[in-house]
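User: Hello! I'm new to structural biology and keep hearing that structure can be predicted from sequence alone. Could you demonstrate with Olfactory receptor? Please show me the input and the output so I can see what each looks like.

Assistant: Of course. The first part below is the input, the amino acid sequence of Olfactory receptor. The second part is the output, the predicted structure written as tokens.
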Amino acid sequence: MSAISISNLNSSRFVLTGFPGLEADYLWLSIPFSSIYAMVFLGNCMVLHVIQTESSLHQPMFYFLAMLALTDLCVGMSTVHTVLGILWGFIREISLDSCIAQSYFIHGLSFTESSVLLAMSFDRYVAICNPLRYSSILTNDKIMKIGVAILCRSSLLIPPVIIRLKFLNYCRPHILSHSFCLHQDLIQIACSDIRFNSIYALTLVISKLLLDAVLILISYVMILHTVLAIASQEERLKSLQTCVSHICTVLVFYIPIIGLTMVHRFGKHLSPLVHVLMGNIYILFPPLMNPVIYSIKTQQIRRRAMKGRGHLLN
């Protein structure tokens, strides 16, 4: 057992894993990662600013997009200090309390994003399948209630499993497999009875992420059924094009989750670098890509973003 493992056995601090085998290149690696975090912050702030200041975007679809951008912004803020701290040499370890707090925000924000994507699919379903009642169904009051429900659903069910991490006995080497804290990482190095954490966490994943994915799929089956009933091919394409951005965002969110789950479940023989890369893709890919997707596919946001760019160049 290495010296670092022995010294951490009886400590309440945990060693964060950077990029195994690339320690000599951390300074160079910090450049692309700093750029990615900068793009995450600037891209999502741009989306929020455009939606707030452009009156034509004060519609249900864009209110949900603002919720998504705010969630992505918070995801970046929850991990930037440990990921860049490791690359810049400021951080090597993290306390148990800080690790639990970071784990809570990462998993809570993941559930929030899943819930927002479900709300956005409901918005597309109403807009295409019941367009005449769209404005009466998705009123500002209803959207506010949906937002509160998303917040409660994502934040109130996680504490039981997260708080219990504080009372587990961590007798295995305190070495985490990522540059940030995840629930599954902590319970893997615990020697206490983790059945509650395992069962409760699995129940949360099934009742939130999996259920949301199934409901999103059902909504698109119903949308497709409605679209195929439209006589005009031009109208069919027009209806489907309004869903392209949301479909891309759903794929960008769920594919990294599936990949990370597969790596954790079946990739124990893989290089630690693969685990770290998948973890960072899971955290950074959706917040990075969502502003790009909606800037490309949404004319109002693209036009306003280009206008802002023109002002900066002038």
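User: So the tokens describe the shape?

Assistant: Right, they're a compact way of writing down the 3D structure. Reading them back into a model, for example: The domain at 13-307 is CATH 1.20.1070.10 (Rhopdopsin 7-helix transmembrane proteins).
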